[in-house]
Structure formats: C-alpha cells, structure tokens
C-alpha cells in the first residue's frame, strides 16, 4: 500500500477493495477499514517526518487511544477507493487524526476520527506532546473535520448487566510490531460474538473503540457484552482490568 502527500498536510492513497477485505455480503468489513486506517496513518506520519522511524530512536512511538468511524455507505468488493488522512492538531494529551474514504465518483463512504498518544516503548509511560522527539510543525496540521466531535468515550450503560460471552488467549497472530495486541484484533473478537446472519443482513453504521490497557501474548481476555436495541457494547478485560471498550451501532 503506497500513497502520496497532497500539499503539506494531507496524505492520500488509492486502492481497490480486495476479496480479503469484504464479508459474504461483499461489503467491506469494519475491521478492514481499521486495518487500512492503521497503515495509512503510519505512512502519513512517516511521510511528514514524525513517523515510527523518526521517533523510535528516542524510544517513543504512536499508540492509538480512541477511534470512532461511521460507515455512510459500505464500499463493495472491487470498488476503487481514495483514502485520505490528516493530522488535526491536539486536544489535551491527544493528537488527533481524521480519515475519509471516497469512491471513484467522490462520494464519501467512510469517515473517521481518532485520538493518539505517544508512549515510551520501554517504560510504557505517556510522553507529553511538547516532549515529542520530533514535533509536528504547524504546516503539517490540517484543521478540517471528517467528524467534528472527538472520538467517542465508550461507557457501558449503567442500567445493564453485561454477559460474559467468551474468552480469548492472545496468540502470535494477534500481536503487532510493538509486541502488544494489535488494535484491530479486539474488534475482530467483538464482531465474532455477534450473530453472523445479522452482520450480513444489517450493515454496521458506526464503531467506537477506546483502548485503556495493553494486552500481551499469553494473556487471557474476557469478552463481556450488552445489547440495547440497535447498539451493542463490549468490555474486554484481562485479569479484571478493562483493556478495551467498544460500541457498535447498526
């Protein structure tokens, strides 16, 4: 997957949606969007001079903290898509990054916003934006919105009793290049605890994910679920500690 800078503050790539990125309805899987977003975020930061290779010498790395994406009209197998991303500045401890997926006619199909933090990869301590090894310069920031509000804070409804629907032991295929569970895998596990037929018949329109505690290989994740009408919440916990919370809306 390769792209290019568009001016000084946007990064864009064009791709065809392939067969491994769709389900049996031939619609793009929500997790396929997350995988694309993860890769283009890495490419964009690198192209703009504040990516992995620019930070790792100081033992720093970008880590996704929150994401909300809305599937306005799910892309289909073999659709030609243009994916654009940009760094939107900061809000408190977060660096903001938005995404937009358009089809060949220019119609918006998916929009997303995300919040990132910088961690010391050795101590796992949060690094303040002003202490970032390579700062994001003003000309690299674009203040346009794919989604205007910040990525949603996911909270399980207070009037619910979540149901334990499964457990997952983190294995080799779940981990990323930093040695913890890849952010997409949690949503994969959640979707696997929804009805298969419903997922094919009723397109998901919005997903929000909060990452609060990293999980490593060999650890067991408990998957707790609650549903109210067209919204499903998942709490993923390890050793009693909340690791990830997810909200999926049909």
- Between the first and last Cα atoms, what is the distance in angstroms? 30 Å
**What summary fits the major beta sheet?**
12 strands, antiparallel
Low-pLDDT ranges: none
Strand tally: 12
* Helical proportion, percent range: 10-25%
Count of alpha/pi helices? 4
Shape: globular
- Estimate the mean pLDDT confidence: 96
> Which structural class do you get from the secondary structure elements?
mainly beta
Rg over CA atoms: 18 Å
List the helices and strands in order: EEHHEEEEEEHHEEEE
Strand content: 35-45%
Task: Provide an overview of this structure.
The protein is mainly beta and 250 residues long. The chain has four helices and twelve strands. It has helices at residues 30-47, 52-55, 183-191, 196-201, and strands at 4-6, 10-16, 60-71, 80-91, 94-103, 108-120, 126-127, 163-169, 206-211, 220-228, 231-238, 241-249. Strands 1, 2, 3, 4, 5, 6, 7, 8, 9, 10, 11 and 12 form a twelve-stranded antiparallel beta sheet that branches. The radius of gyration is 18 Å and the shape is globular. The mean pLDDT is 96.
Topology:
Blueprint: E1 4-6, E2 10-16, H1 30-47, H2 52-55, E3 60-71, E4 80-91, E5 94-103, E6 108-120, E7 126-127, E8 163-169, H3 183-191, H4 196-201, E9 206-211, E10 220-228, E11 231-238, E12 241-249
Antiparallel strand pairs: 1-2, 2-4, 3-6, 3-9, 4-5, 5-6, 6-7, 8-10, 9-12, 10-11, 11-12
